[in-house]
Amino acid sequence: MHRPHDEPAPPVRPHPAPSASPWARPPEPGTVDPAVLGALLARHGWQRRGGAPGRYARWTPPGPGGNGTSLLVPESRAFPDCDDLIGEVLVALSRSASPAARDVLVGLAVPSDEIRWWRDVPTGPAGAATWPVEERLRSAARQMLLAGALAARGRAGYYGARHRGPATAALEDVLVGPAPGGRRLTAFVPVTNGRPLAVRLHQALYAAREAVDYQRATGGMDAFDGAVEAGVSHELTEAIVALVRGTEGARVAVEWAPGAGVPEGCAAHAEPVEFSPGDLTVLREAGARYLRDEPSVPVRITGTVVRMRRSSPRGEGVVRLRVIAGAEIPQVRMALDEDSYRVAGHAHLVGLPIRVHGRLESRGGFRRLTGATGVVPVQVDEADRDRLMKSLQENLDFFEEGCGTD
């Protein structure tokens, strides 16, 4: 069906506004510390080639052909026309095709700790990599960042579903560069909200390396027990295995943001932590041990009923709760006797959450509550009650008494 010629065209939807993320904004010359700029240039391979000592330095990019381009960087803000010189440097970096220029700009835009991964893998023509090789590097790096975020929330040999939501949210502001050839990758973790992640991952990697060395020297796994306090977990060992598998070796390094200083208890210039294929057997054994030995956790959970099932009109049934408080997991399942099941059903129908005592079982990732007792409705204020009732009306299909298993 065609629109008549005399009919006005419908309004065009405006393009979404550009992101307000600090990553998208170039740094202002007046906010750049020359000492930080110099430290980032040195970190990313730029070469200092003279200058007037105490006044300014001349830097050239890494790699062949770098002598044709140079940056004049003042030593301090006391240098005349400091902002003008830094502005020229920022323009030159933004126009450069060198990855080293991009990395310096990222470090200036938002002060960040840098986490680097290297994998020793064969590459194709001109350094290209097959798609799966690069995907494995990115996947392993994300697993490792998530393990660090989990350890920053609390210590455990196995987390399962616990802390998963907040830990995943902690990765939202992390910027990851390209992975050329599937061999190396850099993540920029903002200091403002990501430093606990970087610190915990740094300490956990060294503890994992020491525990592997201890096992290979003595045959004992005891060192992995103490390594939990440093942040080593089933999730971290799985991430290291994913990083190393299919390579001749892999390395991880953490470098601190120059303007933020070195965290307490961490080395200023630590060597990369290395793992080899020979470590995989020990790491897999440690991961299985963490998974097997993590105990169940006594909890008192408050949550809203989102699903109910039982095989007959009477008797016990299975209930799924959306957790509000008591455990850092999104949902949990539990088997209830007939009376408790009825209480849960009535609370659901009137839009009230329930409170229940039990033990979170590690089997299945801490998603199941066993020994559930003391099921009672929980009173909420009118605003929360209205919200719960609206959710109930929109999700009536969740309230099921049909046959089947959850």
Question: What's the quick description here?
Answer:
The chain has eleven helices and 13 strands. With 406 residues, the protein is α+β, with helices and mostly antiparallel strands.
Q: How would you describe this protein?
A:
The chain is an alpha+beta fold and 406 residues long. The protein has three domains: 22-109, no CATH class; 113-293, no CATH class; 297-398, OB fold (Dihydrolipoamide Acetyltransferase, E2P), CATH 2.40.50.590. The protein has eleven helices and 13 strands. The strands form three sheets. The chain has a five-stranded antiparallel β-sheet with strand order 5-6-4-7-8, sandwiched between helices. Strands 9-10-11-13-12 form a five-stranded mixed β-barrel. A three-stranded antiparallel β-sheet has the order 1-2-3. Mean pLDDT is 84; it is low at 1-5, 7-22 and 395-406. Residues 9-29 have a biased composition (Pro residues). Residues 1-34 are annotated as: Disordered.
Topology:
Blueprint: H1 34-43, E1 47-48, E2 56-60, E3 71-74, H2 82-95, H3 99-109, E4 112-119, H4 131-153, H5 164-169, E5 175-176, E6 184-190, H6 191-218, H7 222-227, H8 234-244, E7 250-255, E8 273-275, H9 280-293, E9 297-309, E10 317-325, E11 331-336, H10 338-349, E12 354-361, E13 368-377, H11 382-394
Helix pairs in contact: 1-3, 4-6, 4-8, 8-9
